[in-house]
Amino acid sequence: MRLATYRQGGAEKIGVVDAARTRVFDLAAGAARAGATLAPFASMLALIDADDGGIDAARGLVDRRGSEDDLWTALPDVELLAPVPRPRQMRDGMSYALHIQQSGRGAAAILARAKSGEAAFREVMAQPLPELPDVYRKLPIYYITNRNTVVGPDATVRWPRYSQVMDYELETAVVTKRAAANIKASEARDHIFGYTIFNDFSARDRQMVEMQGRLGPAKGKSFDGSNVLGPWILTPDEIGEIQGLKVAVRVNGETRSTGTTAGMLFSFEEILADAAQDETIRAGEVFGSGTVGGCCGLEAGRLLEHGDVIELEVEKIGVLRNRVVRQD
Question: Which CATH class, in words, describes the domain spanning 89-98+141-326?
Answer without folding.
Answer: alpha beta
